[in-house]
Amino acid sequence: MILNLNAQIVWVFVNLLVLFLLMKKFLFGPITKMLDERAQGVADTIDQADARLAEAKQCQVQYEQQLADAREEAARILAAARQRGENDYARRMAEAEQAVKRLNEQAARQREADRAAMLADAKKQVAALVLMTTAKVSQHALNADTDRALLDSFLAEETGDRL
What we know:
Elements: H1 7-139, H2 144-162
């Protein structure tokens, strides 16, 4: 035989085989089971993390949607407030224009009434002057010198009355 197998080598192989089987049964099995459990735990943790990540992304999308809705609502509120302000401004401007127009009309009526009163007063004064002039002229004889003196005295009296 080429190989010289003696009994001691055979017993070493048998011992190694028995040791291998015992290690497989009591060492490799539990270690493999523990590694499989650990791998399953890691996979479960990763799945949970993925689920939480998906939930977080969904919450983020909802938050962004709510934020966009809030911005749109704020824009609508601002536009409505701006429109109300513009309407109020236009209404007040129209009221102010009407008040100015009414005041102008009242001022025009007052000016017209004052003018009419001044004209009536001027007519009364002219009539009084004509009467006084007529009375003075009828007292004196008419000639150029007398007319001039009468006119000067009349003007002096009127100027003196006004001062």
